[in-house]
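Reopening this ticket.

The earlier resolution said the output was attached, but the attachment link was broken on my side. Pasting everything inline this time so it's all in one place.
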Amino acid sequence: MIYMEKAINSLGKFISLMIPIMTISMVVIIVARYFFGIGLTGLQEFVMYMHALVFLGCAGYVHYKNEHVRVDIFYRESSDKYKRSVNFVLGILFLLPLCFVIGYFSIELIDMAWKIREVSTEAGGLAFVYIQKTLIVLFPITLLITFVHHLNKDRWN
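Inline output:
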């Protein structure tokens, strides 16, 4: 279990470093376009790739840190036992089906993108759309890992 914690923690911290890079890249894109009249399509697509990586890769990290959005009207004042029960039931009812649906339906999309080595449709765009589509499976995998981690951790409390 400690390996899962370290892996998710490391992944989340690494991916979090993309946010300042993404911000600086957006400033460069804006300055290039509005002050110099230069369009940087490749950099724009790179920012989209980083954006996808941040959201899809950090979902598990946010879930691991228990910082995800929830309706705290009843939850915040409750006992730890009640919180564990709510997390378990809602994880089984919503998180697991979501992860399996996204994982199942993304496999064919990702497979096809790799088979044809899908590239950007934009002139000057990046030639690695298939890699971006592969990031889709990062979302359910990291969420499943953190869900299993929380189940195992809660079992011993």
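Reporter confirms the inline version is readable. The helical segments are 2-16, 18-36, 41-64, 72-75, 80-115, 129-134, 138-155. The chain is about 80% helix and 0% strand.
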